[in-house]
């Protein structure tokens, strides 16, 4: 028990992992399976979902984990296979570069996947979890939700929204047996990092870790009952600096932005 809350034991757990065809999601599905969980692998890419499920001996449910219809279909199929969903890993996410100039559909897609996918899943999961007094929601938020991500306003803004929603869920329902975790890695060696361009290469690539390390941190954090799970421990110091000395922190971030602009100008 941690703070009066049950510790996490993956053995026998019925788990859903969204965005599990690649990267962090695939690593989470793999780590949970190895720990004894019964896993449903979800991804928008059906070939990727089926490939990971076949590797793990898990169950594939391809589809959209953001829209109301897609989330309902996923949870319905997962319950039919597992009996009940004990752990929902809201891992699917999209990263869009740009600022206010990013196309409206890019902003909308980021909002739908990075925030509303979490809201819609919890809306369907909570009645059962509250009735039986147990349930666990793991949101892959990213350190961008604690800090920011230069070069990608839609990602930074919606990841802040994902963190805010996870905090709200935890504050509202933890006394009723619902455990919520916010997984906040910094750079991770995935296709998403490859797509972040100059900003990602400067800010994230130097300290990037493997998806398996993120998954290991997630299982440790859930076992310890932690809300914030930080695979990069230094993020805690950055988060504290942002909260306690915001002008100094913003000046430092702007200095990084100017360095990136200078690199781009020399090309």
Automatic annotation (TrEMBL):
The keyword Oxidoreductase is annotated on this UniProt entry: yes
InterPro entries per UniProt: NAD(P)-bd_dom_sf, Sc_DH/Rdtase_CS, SDR_fam
SUPFAM superfamilies according to UniProt: NAD(P)-binding Rossmann-fold domains (SSF51735)
Signal sequence extent: none
Keywords: Oxidoreductase
GO molecular function terms attached to this record: oxidoreductase activity
Pfam families: adh_short
Segments passing through the bilayer: none
Any single Gene Ontology cellular-component annotation: membrane
CDD domains in alphabetical order: SDR_c (cd05233)
Alphabetical list of PANTHER family matching this protein: DEHYDROGENASE/REDUCTASE SDR FAMILY MEMBER 7B, DEHYDROGENASE_REDUCTASE SDR FAMILY MEMBER 7B
Record family assignment: Belongs to the short-chain dehydrogenases/reductases (SDR) family.
UniProt protein name: Dehydrogenase
Upper taxonomic lineage: Bacteria, Bacillati, Actinomycetota, Actinomycetes, Kitasatosporales
